[in-house]
Amino acid sequence: MRTIVRYALTGTSVLALTLSLTALGAAASQADSKTAGKTDSKPVKQPTLTGWASLPAGTFVPGSEPSGSLITGETNGFNVPFADQPVQGFSGIVDNGDGTFDVLSDNGYGNQANSGDFLLRIHRLAPVFAKNQVDVLGGINLRDPDSKVPWKLTREDRVLTGADFDVESIQRTPDGSYWIGEEFGPYLLHFDRTGKLLSAPIALEGVVSPETAKRTGATANLGSSKGFEGLAQSPDGRLLYSLLEGTVTGDKAGSLRFSEFDVRKEKYTGKKFRYQLEDPANAIGDAIAVDSNRFLVIERDNGQGATAKFKKIYLADKRDRDRDGAMDKTLLVDLMNVANPKGVGGFGKTFTFPFQTIEDVVILDDHTIGVLNDNNFPFSTGRSATEADNNEWITIELPKSLNADRRLLP
């Protein structure tokens, strides 16, 4: 038996209701998220698990819309289509500073063809580490009512779906609007705080994904689902840095373009940096800024469960001090080898995060980061070979301070 969890906030009133709920529970949630990031008064000697929470795979937005009618293949015990929209596939995160987080779902069920009835959405979540659970407080659907997208969308009402865009990364700028990186273009998308698209999709010059090639007749030079997996913001909010997940044809194997974007001008500056994968077969899961020069980057292999071997977070520096043409990299956390002396979450002394896709990292304070998986619902089976993965949320205390720019801390 699997428990189907649903929550009760829907429609356009969700923001007001969410704010009300947040005001009631923010102090407790904030205290919980902070205390989960500390072991005791003594500094840890290696990255150490300090919090674990889980959102069940079968969590849905009630009364939303049916979804999953185009899914084929093994669904790990879940019947399709679903009666509602699942709360799943987390691929980007924004810290609200009050114990709640805005978390982005990706395009739905893995590709353009099977995700036309999955509504793109930003969920508002609150981890409760004391209870090992995640509360879902509401969310907003992404939409294009002003017809900023110049090509035909899946739905006549212009609510955006996983067949329109594959959203994978998110930043909220000082004016409260969201910038989202996606993979079908790859494009940058600018939304207001209610989820309305504010301007036409912005392409990265010289880079074309297969989905765009099919629509426009251009030649693709990037693999499918290899667009903007990471999106970082400068401390002053004026610049974004979009990191591709895959290598552009003609570039060095395993070399990923990290491009600088001017938020005010809504155009790329022309400055590019290179992130070099440890193995060309690897991919990145997220990229966020630590300060003006340093970034946290999740790099992973494609394995899950017993085949998961390489799941790491690096500190990458765009100053390239060794002058080898790539960002300097320092290993920060091996997610397959995290100390767990207190047995947090009921796991053993060594904690592993054996998921195929790990796509969210957030800085909670100078010594603590949060990490979430993308469970690719209902397909991924990293914890059990026969059961769909839950969305897990962990906090890790670091042995050394990040010395992050204070403007990037909650």
Which key features would you list for this structure?
Esterase-like activity of phytase family protein; 25 strands; 4-stranded antiparallel beta sheet; single chain; disordered N terminus; Phytase-like_dom; 2 helices; signal; globular; 7% helix; 410 residues; mainly beta; Tachylectin-2, Chain A
Write a structural description:
The longest helix has 22 residues, at 14-35. This protein is mostly beta strands and 410 residues long. The radius of gyration is 20 Å and the shape is globular. 7% of the residues lie in helices and 36% in strands. The protein contains two helices and 25 strands. The strands form seven sheets. Strands 2-25-24-23 form a four-stranded antiparallel β-sheet, covered by helices on one side. Strands 5-6-7-8 form a four-stranded antiparallel β-sheet. The chain has a four-stranded antiparallel β-sheet with strand order 9-10-11-12, with no helix packed on it. 48% of the residues are buried.
Explain briefly what this protein structure is:
This protein is mainly β and 410 residues long. Helix content is 7%, strand content 36%.
